Amino acid sequence: MARITGTYFRVSDFSNLHAFYADLLGMSVVRKDDDSIVFSFDPSQNSLVFQKADVAPYYAGPHDFYWKIGITLKNLDQAVSYLRGKGVLVSDPYQFRDIGYMTKLTDPKGFHIELLQQGFEGNEQMPELNPTARGHAIADQAILAHITLRVSDLVAARDYFENKLGMRLMSVQPVSDRGFCLYFYSWNNEALPDPDLKAVANREWLWRRPYSLIELQHWEDPAVQIAQTLMDQAGFDGFSFLGRSHGECKVSLGELSTALVP
Does pLDDT of 137 surpass 80? Predict the structure, then answer.
């Protein structure tokens, strides 16, 4: 089955990335050379690939095309307690509607990370030791689970992910009073707990999937202008996936922007 294998970022240097992703979050360093450093919880799934470039610092905006990565956890309160013990600024976790129990933090380069419990508030699990456990409070319970992009043209977005990339829409999560709806894509053909894509019953199940999903935040107001990341600024630079028959493919930021940003 096809799967996402890499999430790419342009950065000016690698300062503090090892301390954050390897030491603090417990990711393994999959590869490191003069031009790139790669981190992952599970190298057989998605990795974070930071590539050195001559770029200005990253500054996130509320309607940027790229928003965040998501990491799902068995026990969010336990993870937050650990992070605060290390001096990391983390807001109090909260149950966001019938979507998930979550909080957010920022990495040393300004990239946003959502921490999302695999069960709703009160449905935490105790991380289980397994043969690959590293004795780390985050890594032993975490999945690199989401790449979140903002779009305003839903027709173009669905055509691209469903017809161009052959991905499957797995969940639709309306947040109508906030002006957006969330759409989650993967290549997996697992049967959903409930065939209704809007069913709340699917959501905790979705957060426990061991592979990464593309999350689209569709802004329903046509007046919302989605901003592209400038190529001379640090930022998201696309993703790679292992296809069914064509090996590993890279989807560049340029291709995504052309297809999805009006």
Answer: yes
